[in-house]
Design a protein that fits this description.
single chain; alpha+beta; Ferric Hydroxamate Uptake Protein, Chain A, domain 1; six-stranded mixed β-sheet; three-stranded antiparallel β-sheet; about 20% helix
């Protein structure tokens, strides 16, 4: 009987720990030398009507959005790594949740999140179209334009 309770308690603790860690992010590292290259990636952040809620970018927004100078990367660097490098360079933060099978989902940029009821969220776009994969699966293979836009569900 004691062993069964102990096993149940251990499993419960493991589940709670895994749940708590699912939204954690590690420290962001700058691009490594082998991630820097000649491909030009231009990133736009569009806060739509929530630009006044940003923590660090408000003074730089134009009609609620900002387009940054390019990040130069090597082939096959992911869009997520571009976003990590950009946040370091431009002094803003991103918060991410990792989902099994989906990868990193950027849910907060510079303090602005989508709605709690998911009626809006940060959509990831490539060349003006909603991307088919998440940012951590999207590999850069040519000069490109990426956007994160507060998007209605």
């Amino acid at each position: 009987m004691f062993s069964k309770k102990r096993t149940t308690l251990t499993i419960t603790i493991l589940i709670l720990t895994a749940s708590a860690l699912s939204g954690c992010t590690s420290d962001t590292e700058p691009l490594a030398e082998d991630e820097i290259g000649d491909l030009s990636v231009v990133v736009t952040l569009d806060f739509v009507d929530q630009g006044n809620q940003t923590a660090n970018l408000a003074d730089r927004l134009n009609d609620g959005s900002i387009t940054f100078d390019p990040v130069h990367v090597a082939p096959n660097v992911t869009a997520y790594r571009v976003m990590e490098a950009l946040q370091l360079r431009e002094n803003f933060t991103i918060d991410v949740t990792y989902y099994v099978g989906m990868g990193a989902f950027v849910h907060t940029i510079d303090g602005v999140s989508g709605a709690d009821d998911w009626s809006t969220y940060w959509g990831f776009y490539h060349e003006g179209e909603m991307a088919d994969v998440g940012a951590s699966s999207f590999e850069i293979t040519s000069d490109t334009n990426l956007s994160w836009i507060i998007t209605p569900a």
